[in-house]
Design goal:
Elements: H1 2-17, H2 21-33, H3 35-60, H4 62-66, H5 69-91, H6 106-112, H7 117-127, H8 134-167, H9 170-193
Helix pairs in contact: 1-8, 2-3, 2-8, 2-9, 3-6, 3-7, 3-8, 5-9
Amino acid sequence: MLEWLGIIALFSIAACLSPGPNNIMLVLSAINFGLKRTLPHYFGVCFGYPIKIVLISLGITELAAHFPMISFFVRLGGSLFLLLYALNLLVSVPTSTNNQRRPLTYREASLFQWLNVKGWVIAFSAGSLLPDYGTERFFASLVVGVCFLVVSLPCYYVFVFLGAKFRHTKVGLRYSQYVSQFGTVLLGASALSSLYLPLNV
């Protein structure tokens, strides 16, 4: 049991810290809007991601097996969302008078997890670590969800903190726009690459 928990914990850490849309978006949000305004986005990721993993582990993935078009719409929807988000950041130059720009809300960040292709890959992988059926799978799914929640809170906060810290340095004040634009390009590349990622593993 302890060995299995260790595997789940390491898997959760790797999933949260490995490059992906959530990491980039949180850094960009903290750079553009600061730590306090990014917190709803941060909590939406931290709570929305584990809920998705639990539901997928409990068998919602069977829908994708019976309806292959779900995979297509997940890819397309996730990619379009990321591209529109990146485009919004690129065309909206951060200034003190620009009040139309805003970070993602808790609900938007939570819902985005269902369009996050990397999130689907991670969730399928997590499901492969669980028992095949029965009550054991149900409780194991809850344990995995709680583990992801506990791990994601400090892991994703690192990205928010680094983005906010950079925002308030002399270098950040001078080059935040360029760093934001570079991160936005990476986000766009992530959106395009997600079209080629397999949803099932």
